[in-house]
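Lab meeting prep.
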Amino acid sequence: MKKKRRSPLKVSLIRRDGRLMIEGLGAWYNYLSDPYHLLLTIPWSGFLALICLGYILANALFALAYILGGDGIENARPGNFLDAFFFSVQTMASIGYGAMYPSSTYAHILVTLESLVGLFGVTMATGLMFARFSRPTAKVIFSRVAIVTTFQGVPTLMFRTANKRRNLILEASLRVSLARDEITTEGDFLRRIYDLKLIRSQNPSFSLTWTAMHPIDSSSPLYGVSKEALAEDETTIIITLTGLDETVGQNIYAHHTFAAQDILWDMRFVDILAWTPNGDRYVDYSHFHEVKPL
């Protein structure tokens, strides 16, 4: 029996350690068709390795081209790859030590072409380097768990977030959504997303910590839902934080998710606000992730 070949566009949704995992995401996407995005998203080590590899490969190809042209480099050993390679490096970098120089029309044409290639190469590498450095990033942390506790007599979903930088995030905004599996009245499976309304979703100057609170009232998707039902429906809480970095004046983004197992019931966060003996207040981040029973 002929084995059926797995479709290359297949994306798997699996449950691992209580979390919904996606394997094969972007299977229909070819990264080689979008090199700019690839060079912006790969790690710095990979980016620098590609730049170095491209530089060495380009000089090696031009060195072979110089050798194929015969004795066209003055003061270079005929047919010597190293001499041709280092002459190519000097040409591409516009160093021009003067010890070796082109002595034939063929070599002059190659030097002209290589100078143009080097100009474009340096321009692109500089632009990519600047684009990677200039991308705004948010140094924001979220609590490892979310809790369901009582706040002013109402069951409330809470989690913490904090700004790790010393500057402010202006006009910070939190958006919280809930995603869970549902079966429609027609019997169709649906991964449905609900917006969770927060008591305060805007912060004009986010500098220290922020405790987000969603009241679980009759209008909440979590109303009447047990922790067992959250796990059964593979519920995920999705948080997006946006704001304006006051230092660079650009929008920054932060993202976090809580699986059903990350939501603790009948707990409260340990207070991180404390007072010194002289009456001054301070924030103790060592207890940022800690919770305790009600």
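Slide two material, second protein:
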Amino acid sequence: MCFGVILCFFAVVLCIFPFFYVLLESFCNCFWGAEGLPLSTTSNEACKLYDAILTQYVKWRNDDTLGGLEGCMSAIQAADPNFVMGNVISTGLELMTTTTSTRLNQRLASAVRRTVELANTQDISPREKLHVRAIECFSHGNFPKASEAWEEILLDHPTDLLALKFAHDSYFYTGAQAEMRDSVVRVLPHWKPHIPLHSYLNGLHAFGLLETRFYDQAEKVAMEGLAMTPDDAWAVHAVAHVCEMRAEVDKGLKFMETREKDWQVSDALASHNYWHWALYYVEQVFRRCKASGSMLDTVDACSLLYRLEMEGVCVKDRWQELLQVTQPHTDDHVTLFNDLHFLMGSLGANESATSQRLLEGLQELTKEPGENQQHQLAATLGIPMCQAMIEYNQGNYNQTVNLLYPIRYKMVNIGGSDAQRDVFNQLLIHAAMKSESKRHQKLGRCLLVERDAMKPNSPLTRRLMERNLALHG
């Protein structure tokens, strides 16, 4: 929704007739209000910048002609520093990156407080107040409460794309797969072709479907979205996941290759899509990871090295390179998912002091977790998983199995996707195969049978079965 021509005309009218000024806010709002989404600001420039930020967020792509997301977020502050939704979208996006936390970053904590203060001192809509409540909850680590607020918005305003996308990402961080799917399903009837960015809902919908094992439907929905918007990198990403979960290696490689020119322009998601194509594009992942500093790129690089190492590939030098990126985040503790990947980095680089510091920091936070959901989960999930990785690194395979096996069905709660969390399933299988315990070895065989049933014809599963046969006959 860009209304530049009309709003510029109206600005001329304002110069001629100053008494029209009082109508400007309602004029801006009438356009957003067409979808029941008024914005409480008197700045038409702020409205346009809000739209530009939201569009780049949904597309996973910086628009360099506008200065990218960072440039637009700076500009929206200059256009109207008291614009509540301008502060919501800028602060919310920084929180969503999980690159930093309000616990350690006082500037970000201050930005959240300022947003709340602005909301409390202005006559804004109930929808806008819910947005503020949501990012405040998210900033405290209370992801479920944040999602509840966004869902409350969507109940009355199903075309509020910011609420939908924030909820989608929040569900992803908590492994709330069904919620991620159903959140999109509920609003679909309200989205019509004339609504900007409507085709991008296909990618969101498809991802929720595949994470709840509706692979055929997920592929169909994603391809429908790509027929409308070929460069929708999230829809491409959904198809990549479907091929991964079905072990359709050749199909996945061909799909990613033939569409690379479309999805690689999505600079915020390109590295992750290369990760799905990782065995052929290892260099792409690392080059982009170091350049972007993106948390998604960082955890992908950690996961890739960890998987290659379990496959017997020597990646020692790569760990040292990656440690430069992960080590500064040792004390963040924003999500358990991130922590586990940072631990991969310190273990791989043999930085035992960093590994211990990460574990002890997490243990300390469990003593008084407050409303932070991730810290609440740490005692029963995050810490055992960290300890299991440390034990595996030290060759204590029995203890690794004893720690991981009882919680394997709870691992979904660390967030991420099935494809990303599979690294921990692989870790359990490797530990069971290497364990001296006959019972664990038998468990390893059972886990491989189970894996083969879930992903028939997977080359990885076949390699694991062959390795198990070589070890134990």
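Talking points for slide two:
The mean pLDDT is 91.
The chain has three domains: 1-195, 199-264, 288-473.
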